[in-house]
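User: What would this chain look like folded?
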Amino acid sequence: MRPEGVAFFAGDLSEQEQKVVWATHFAPAADLFDQKIKGTAWKSKPSWYIVAKKDRTVQPELQRFLAKRMGAKTFEVESSHVPMLSNPMLVTDVIRTAANAVQESAATK
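Assistant: Here's the prediction, encoded as structure tokens.
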């Protein structure tokens, strides 16, 4: 990612935080979209999804489509592509919600 691209990726972070994101990012694996992975967890396990409504990297409508296809419990947030950085409390709450739901489900089996 070029330095000027960070605003599209993490535009709701401060300028200083955007610089850290740029300095610490790395390119995804070159074969990312060609990888063949056996089994798909979301087809057999409960899922949770956070839609980043201000994402300029993956369009929110695509995120909603994917979440719906997964049957995911969906949360939406006014965020760029990095809600874990711009809204860490919400992300933590979603993780706790998921963990509690899985724990409760396991306890009833």
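The chain is about 50% helix and 10% strand. If you want, I can go into more detail on any region.
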